């Protein structure tokens, strides 16, 4: 129990120690989850693991090659000695002659660091270079194989012990004994040498890899840092900040995308500011008129009834104007909402246009403007009738308003198998080329002074434009000053 607890305590201590080391490491080198560290670690792994794998592999290759070479040498030695002993008739020789050959074998043991043993055909040891087995029977598998007439070779599983047993034949080719040569390979020194050279080499290599990796990681991360710094400034509201694009790679593509986004953000921001200032400006004018009118009513005592009425009528018309502005703004804002649902239904476009014209006839009569309608065919359409009717109504109303007495407005309806085409043409005041591009912008009016008389807010055409776009259609304007304007609206027959 106590031991268990001690063990647990120890483990948690080790854990705490490890955590502390990790914390120190993190404090020294920053957050380990950053891209820089991930890159660094991957490079280190890619660069260093193969070095160790190759090291281990190479040492193995060298070792097995050396063992093979040594085994070959010893095989030749055993074969050579067996032939020599057979030729010299060693097995049947006098002790004196044997002594000479024995000395020769002892010398070989010295020089080759090999254990040499000779057995007769009964596996009895008749010579042992270590002089411990003399007279004993040595019937090992190797010896038995050689006594059977074939050479035996084995290399121990550790790769270090080599055993060669060669049969000794007499003059008639009969096996009369065998010579065994055993050798314990010791490459210790050589391997140590290889290892220490390799360690020096690897240390230098690892240091070089580390240095390259640090530089590479820095180099790869630098553009990312630049992008981050700029993105940070942009997010803090500095919309004029742009990322400095260098080269052509993934980072420059990211930089370009962010710059593009910032352009759009800056445009949206300036449009927003312009919109707000326009709204305030547009509302300020009627408000100050109301203020002037009501103040004169308050301060001028004994104003005639007639005058009273006139001022109040003016105040009412200013309030109406403000109501118009607010209503149109609300329509626009609603259209700005993402994916404003179109209330689509099937209806007859000819009838819709007739209704629009009917509603505007009194205004046309008042302005002494002739309105004519020509339809080439009956056109049924799937669209949002209310919105489309308002959009076309704005065009016809403008064509009447920005006209001259005795002027003319011509509305034409045509269609092909995909779209309906509605043309609203007038021979009124026209719009100059430079203003044509802006008429669809909110609050844009060509002649503010004159337009105030006509009661315009500068929002009508932007509502029309937006509605047509929502229907996936298009609107085109051609106009010439003092000659008239023509708006051509294309709406798909199926706007779903
Ligand atoms: P408004 O409420 O002022 O009519 P619009 O957005 O409908 O606002 O039109 C913007 C401006 O474009 C108008 O103020 C007017 O100057 C000009 N405009 C629009 N339609 C015509 C037209 N048919 N002929 C001449 N000018 C036009």
Can you walk through the features of this model?
The chain has 496 residues and is of the alpha+beta class. The chain has 12 helices and 12 strands. It has helices at 2-29, 35-87, 95-112, 141-147, 188-235, 250-299, 305-336, 349-367, 385-401, 433-436, 448-454, 460-470; strands at 114-120, 125-128, 152-155, 161-169, 175-184, 344-348, 370-375, 380-384, 408-415, 419-426, 474-480, 484-492. The strands form 3 sheets. A 5-stranded antiparallel sheet has the order 2-1-5-4-3. The chain has a 5-stranded mixed sheet with strand order 7-9-10-12-11, with helices on one face. Strand 9 and strand 10 (419-426) form a beta hairpin. The longest helix is centred in the N-terminal third of the chain and has 53 residues, at 35-87. It is rod-shaped, with a radius of gyration of 53 Å. The model is unreliable at 1-6 (pLDDT under 50).
Condensed summary:
The protein contains twelve helices and twelve strands. It has 496 residues and is of the alpha+beta class. The longest helix is centred in the first third of the chain and has 53 residues, at 35-87.
The helix content is 55-70%
- Our measurement of the CA-to-CA distance between the termini, rounded to an integer number of angstroms, reads 78 Å
Strand composition percent: 15-25%
Rg, Cα atoms, Å: 53 Å
Q: Uncertain spans, ≥5 residues at pLDDT below 50?
A: 1-6
Task: Give the key terms.
496 residues, alpha+beta, 5-stranded antiparallel sheet, 5-stranded mixed sheet, 12 helices, 17% strand, disordered N terminus, binds adenosine-5'-diphosphate
């Amino acid at each position: 129990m106590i031991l268990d607890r001690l063990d647990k305590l120890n483990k948690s201590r080790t854990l705490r120690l490890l955590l502390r080391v990790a914390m120190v490491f993190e404090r020294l080198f920053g957050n380990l989850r950053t891209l820089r560290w991930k890159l660094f670690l991957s490079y280190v792994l890619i660069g260093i693991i193969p070095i160790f794998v190759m090291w281990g592999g190479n040492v193995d290759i060298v070792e097995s090659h050396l063992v093979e070479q040594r085994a070959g040498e010893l095989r030749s030695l055993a074969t050579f000695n067996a032939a020599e002993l057979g030729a010299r008739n060693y097995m049947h020789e006098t002790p004196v002659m044997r002594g000479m050959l024995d000395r020769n074998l002892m010398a070989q043991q010295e020089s080759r660091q090999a254990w040499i043993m000779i057995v007769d055909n009964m596996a009895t040891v008749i010579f042992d270079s270590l002089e411990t087995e003399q007279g004993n029977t040595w019937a090992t598998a190797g010896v038995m194989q050689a006594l059977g007439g074939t050479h035996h070779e084995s290399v121990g599983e550790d790769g270090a012990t080599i055993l060669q047993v060669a049969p000794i034949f007499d003059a008639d080719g009969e096996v009369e004994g065998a010579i065994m040569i055993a050798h314990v390979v010791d490459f210790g020194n050589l391997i140590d040498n290889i290892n220490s050279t390799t360690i020096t080499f690897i240390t230098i290599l690892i240091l070089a890899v580390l240095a390259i990796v640090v530089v590479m990681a820095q180099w790869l991360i630098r553009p990312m840092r630049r992008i981050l710094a700029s993105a940070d400034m942009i997010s803090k509201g500095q919309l004029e900040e742009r990322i400095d694009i260098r080269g052509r790679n993934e980072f420059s593509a990211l930089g370009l995308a962010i710059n593009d986004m910032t352009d759009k953000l800056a445009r949206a921001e300036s449009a927003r500011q312009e919109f707000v200032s326009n709204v305030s400006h547009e509302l300020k004018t009627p408000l100050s008129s109301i203020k002037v009118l009501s103040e004169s009513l308050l301060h001028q005592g004994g104003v005639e009834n007639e005058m009273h009425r006139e001022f109040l009528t003016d105040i009412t018309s200013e309030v109406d104007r403000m109501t118009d502005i607010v209503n149109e703004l609300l329509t626009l804002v609603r259209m700005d909402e993402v994916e404003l649902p179109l209330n689509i239904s099937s209806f007859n476009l000819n009838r819709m246009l007739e209704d629009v014209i009917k509603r505007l006839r009194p205004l046309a009569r008042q302005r002494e403007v002739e309105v004519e309608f020509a339809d080439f065919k009956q056109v049924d359409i799937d669209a949002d009738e209310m919105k489309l009717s308002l959009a076309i109504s704005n065009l016809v109303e403008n064509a009447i308003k920005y006209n001259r007495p005795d002027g003319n407005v011509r509305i034409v309806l045509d269609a092909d198998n995909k779209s309906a085409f509605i043309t609203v043409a007038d021979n009124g005041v026209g719009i100059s080329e430079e203003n044509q591009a802006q008429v669809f912008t909110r609050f844009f009016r060509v002649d503010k002074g004159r337009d105030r008389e006509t009661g315009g807010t500068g929002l009508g055409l932007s509502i029309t434009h937006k509605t047509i776009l929502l229907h996936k259609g298009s609107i085109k304007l051609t106009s010439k000053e003092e000659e008239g304007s023509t708006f051509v609206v294309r709406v798909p027959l199926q706007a779903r």
